[in-house]
Amino acid sequence: MAEATPGEVTMEKIVSLCQRRGFIFPSSEIYGGLSSLWDYGPLGVELKQNVKQAWWRTTVQERDDMVGLDTSILMHPKVWEASGHLKQFTDPLVECKQCHLRWRPDELKDNNCPSCGGELTDPHLFNLMFKTSMGPVEEEASVAYLRPETAQGIFVNFQNVLNTTRKRLPFGIAQMGKAFRNEITTGNFIFRCREFEQMEIEYFVKPETADEWFNYWLEERRNWYVKLGIKAENLRLRPHTEEELAHYARQCSDIDYQFPMGWAELEGIANRGDYDLTQHAKHSGKSLNYHDEETNEHFVPYIIEPSAGVDRSVLALLCDAYTEEMAEGELRTLLHLHPTLAPIKVALLPLSKKGNLMEFASQIYTDLRQCWMVQFDTTQSIGRRYRRQDEIGTPFCVTIDFQSLEDNQVTIRERDSMNQIRIPIAVLKETLTAKLAGEELFVLPPGGQIWKEEKKE
Ligand code: ATP
Predict the structure, then answer these.
(1) Can you tell me which atom of ligand 1 is nearest the CA of 264?
(2) How many angstroms separate the alpha carbon of residue 143 from the centre of ligand 1?
(3) Which residues touch 169 (CB under 8 Å, ≥6 apart)?
(4) 192 CB less than 6 Å from ligand 1?
(5) Pocket test for ligand 1, best of 83, 90, 176, 198 (most atoms within 8 A of CB)
(6) Distance from the CA of 188 to the center of ligand 1, in angstroms?
(7) Residue 302: beta bridge partners?
(8) Using CA positions, which residue lies closest to atom 16 of ligand 1?
(9) What is the pTM of this model?
(10) Does the C-beta of 181 come closer than 6 Å to ligand 1?
(11) Which helix (H) or strand (E) holds 365?
(12) CB-CB contact of 264 with 257 (8 Å)
């Protein structure tokens, strides 16, 4: 068998790690899975929640000019008429006359079906919205759609928020939640799903300041990914060309990430002008004007929309964090995740199951899990246990040995450097708090000492 050596990040490796360690599974797997639908496992749900929390914190919690919202997935059908989704939310499609699979013409190499080589139909437009019906009788009048984006819930609540929060321009409304699109081309794991989650900001501004705010949000959103640990060289801003621009957008730029399959959109930032509020005012008959008390003007605000995908962010973060390296003559796989995002913050590892070490360790476990997601792992060698935690991105392992029973000290081992310090249990919680917030491992608490410095090869 060929010796394992560190290699490049591939989608196969990410998918394999996600399934093996319980981050992400195919939906309805025991029935063979369902195309482009995924379930988040025990570690995946933690990672995803941490991404959403990080977004909410920077977007809503830490800002005076933003408020949050959580609107329903099913909305009045007129919303989709007004927004243009019923008419415009379509992709051209060709169908194979033989196997009936459908394809996007712009993704075909030639005029034959990529699956069976059969002849293809002329393109026709295909609406990406999922249709359902409300109420007991299935008829045209009861048609409803699963929302293909969370944004419309924000637009239709503009006046409600304005009236109840007394916010003045410029201000924004943020929402996270599920969206559904009957995508034609799928694949690339969770990059393009039929059910996914979005994190959207609708930022309302005076029309003459829209360009300024558009540039502000480009920078702000790009920096958010960098702060969460994504390498700056794996991100780029890509302005849309005239032809690409959506019908409602005055200006649009994508934040692309260099995924293993190439550069692709992570987030879209658009200057939507006054399109949305004007459309909803027209179709609902309700005024969605803003009254500027200083100038006594009434006008429709412009909207800057930074629209991100939770699942795509999770995928980009996993790809960026995935690292293989040689350590002590062995291949070590680690997820170099930012501590804020790591599903498990601390692993507690008693060196032996003997004596009263387990009981001693489990007391510390009970105490620490009040603060963080902590794992208690007692099986196999300590080396194996460290590797298991490295692979799921746990920033710190706390080892308890027989000496701990005597000196009330434990060892903290850090994921990336594999360096270790020994500290009194009395200061364990505050030390971990400081380290998880980014303090260097070798800044020692009272009574702490550098225990061992493993040199990386
Ligand atoms: P694409 O061109 O890749 O289909 P889009 O331009 O249609 O994306 P937007 O409508 O701008 O996407 O949606 C905003 C964000 O929502 C995207 O940047 C992406 O992160 C996320 N998103 C959109 N569609 C999907 C999907 N099918 N699966 C996962 N995330 C999605």
Answers:
(1) 3
(2) 24
(3) 204, 205, 206, 290, 292, 301
(4) yes
(5) 198
(6) 13
(7) 205
(8) 309
(9) 0.92
(10) yes
(11) helix 357-368
(12) yes
Nearest residue (by CA) to ligand 1, atom 12, is 268
pLDDT in tens, the chain (457 residues): 345 677 899 999 999 999 999 999 999 999 999 989 999 999 999 999 999 999 999 999 999 999 999 999 999 999 999 999 988 877 788 878 777 777 888 778 888 888 888 888 888 777 889 999 988 776 667 889 999 999 999 999 999 999 999 899 999 999 999 999 998 777 799 999 999 999 999 999 999 999 999 999 999 999 999 999 999 999 999 999 988 888 888 999 999 999 999 999 999 999 999 999 999 999 999 999 999 999 999 999 999 999 999 999 999 999 999 999 998 888 999 999 999 999 999 999 999 988 799 999 999 999 999 999 999 999 999 999 999 999 999 999 999 999 999 999 999 999 999 999 999 999 999 999 999 999 998 899 988 888 765 544 3
**Any atom of ligand 1 within 6 Å of the Cβ of 307:** yes
Cα distances (Å, whole numbers) of residue 128 to 2, 146, 151, 182: 46, 10, 16, 5
Strands (E) across 168-316 are located at 171-180, 195-205, 235-239, 251-259, 262-273, 290-292, 297-299, 302-309
Contact present, 287 and 280 (Cβ < 8 Å): no
Give the closest residue (by CA) to ligand 1 atom 14. Answer: 307
Residue nearest to atom 19 of ligand 1 (CA): 309
Instruction: Point out which residues pair with 67 in neighbouring strands.
Output: 173
Please say whether the beta carbons of 363 and 311 come within 8 A.
no
Choice from 152, 195, 196, 217 to test ligand 1 binding pocket (greatest atom count within 8 A of CB) = 196
Token reading at 388: 């298991």
Q: What span, in angstroms and rounded, lies between the C-alpha atoms of 31 and 400?
A: 43
Gap between the Cα atoms of 423 and 133, Å rounded: 61
Place of tokens 């609107």: 71
Task: Find out whether the beta carbon of 36 lies less than 6 Å from any atom of ligand 1.
Answer: no
Ligand 1: nearest atom to the Cα of 192: 28
Among 240, 307, 311, the mutation site with the greatest number of ligand 1 atoms within 8 A of its Cβ is 307
